[in-house]
Amino acid sequence: MAKVTFIGLGNMGGPMASNLLKAGHEVTVFDLSKPAVEALVAEGASTADSAKAATQGAECVITMLPAGKHVEAVYLGEDGLLAALPAGTLVIDSSTIAPETSRAVAEAAAAKDLAFIDAPVSGGVGGATAGTLTFICGGEVATYNKARPVLEAMGKNIFHAGPHGAGQVAKICNNMMLAILMAGTSEALALGVKNGLDPAVLSEIMKQSSGGNWALNLYNPWPGVMEGVPASRDYQGGFLVNLMTKDLGLAFDNAVANQASIPMGSLARNLFQLHAGQGNGQLDFSSILRLYKPD
Ligand code: NAD
């Protein structure tokens, strides 16, 4: 069992840190939010006054922060963690951020002989709570192998995607496809309902036909069709529209930088931005259905 410091105890990081504790790791936590820290301390974690103090004696540091600017602020610069950590420390960033930001952190970490990987996740809050996340890692194979035992306490599928930043690239591709699938599924259901079809019957037909996909099969966006999904609790909880919009922005910036064409991803980005701009940023992303079914 390892001495792990976990920074960023939000919707994802909180349950991830909790699973590390359940697996028997010695966990120290830090977050800017006091209630988030207190919840983990109540479960047996230690804490400290700052991120730097929380990493004292850590064999492994994990961050789960909202966006690239937070990751840069925590790791880089004279006051950043990389400047303070002893050589050889394992450093894992599971935030979803731009691949180039991950590569910049990896380069700064290598200059300090720290073992860094990007390890963004898929599986949402449900996967974080159940300990069944998919980790998509980028970095040296030796570092990935070192990280696996810690990641296994929080996830079920742990992939090595390639060198530094590759985990982020794979994650961005996956979420772009998810956004397209969710918008397309909403559009098809809304068209059927306009024609008088029952959305549950149409869903069953498409699930058994060539239109079947993850969004339709496991995360139906039409309220009342599927139990236990955000659509059936007024789109509360789940994966926020604001986070999906952020990820589609990462895909767009990456496509521009690489001269890649993403017409479907760009359209999905526009739809989610429009939806977020109408005050839906804090709803689950399957609420994109409301663009097609305003009532
Ligand atoms: P969140 O906003 O719920 O949590 C982020 C936490 O980081 C907050 O508690 C915040 O106080 C803390 N934080 C911010 N700056 C900090 C700092 N400088 N020091 C310490 N703590 C700081 O976000 P989340 O939903 O947990 O998502 C985290 C990351 O995971 C994001 O990059 C997101 O895109 C990605 N992700 C989220 C989901 C999901 O379903 N929510 C799924 C997959 C990936």
Automatic annotation (TrEMBL):
Segments forming domain 6-phosphogluconate dehydrogenase NADP-binding: 3-162
Pathway: Amino-acid degradation; L-valine degradation
Protein's name in the database: 3-hydroxyisobutyrate dehydrogenase
Family: Belongs to the HIBADH-related family.
Biological processes, Gene Ontology terms: L-valine catabolic process
Catalytic reaction list: 3-hydroxy-2-methylpropanoate + NAD(+) = 2-methyl-3-oxopropanoate + NADH + H(+)
Organism: Marinobacter nauticus
Range of residues in the leader sequence: none
Catalytic residues as annotated in Swiss-Prot or TrEMBL: K171
PROSITE patterns referenced in this protein's UniProt entry, alphabetically: 3_HYDROXYISOBUT_DH
